[in-house]
Amino acid sequence: MAKYKHLLFVGLLLATVACERPVPPVSDKAEASFNLTTYLQEQKQALQAEQPMVLKSVATQGQEPEIKETSNVDWEDELTVFEQAGLNRPSLLEYYTKQEQVLADGSIAIEYNRLEDAEAQVTYLRLLLSPNGQLKQLNARLQDQNIIFYSRRSIQLSTDPQTGDIASYRVEGVQKMAFGDSLHYKVAANL
């Protein structure tokens, strides 16, 4: 009887393994894709250490923009919205169509569009990479919605063509609580 239990166990194990989806092989192209999360973590560390001077403009609807030049910036907080645009987790990619295009100057444009029935936060992401894979520009639209809160943001980040470091960024958005007015805002910063 013990012999049959052992065979039954091996049979169940083989059946379980046979039902698993095979992992697709990683191609050279997938390994070379741009990792936004890693890039932003490296930028946060460098900016926190350097504390560069930043010219920042913040405006809310109906108000004149407040413009300030400062080197006192919490980069962890400041760049969080751009990290939210990262689609580096393979489980997220199933919610998007992806298009790549090589431009005349050798740059690569990669666009992700959210599928119609998907509920992922990023609705659109466009990365413009230099021929050597360095980020030149990021454009994205993010949307959060539940019964209490609604938020929509358009974000843009540009880099210095020589160094690849962040040179400027913009965030434009609207947020609304279920029982309140909507708030429109714009943030722009140049390093």
From TrEMBL:
<protein>
    <submittedName>
        <fullName>Uncharacterized protein</fullName>
    </submittedName>
</protein>
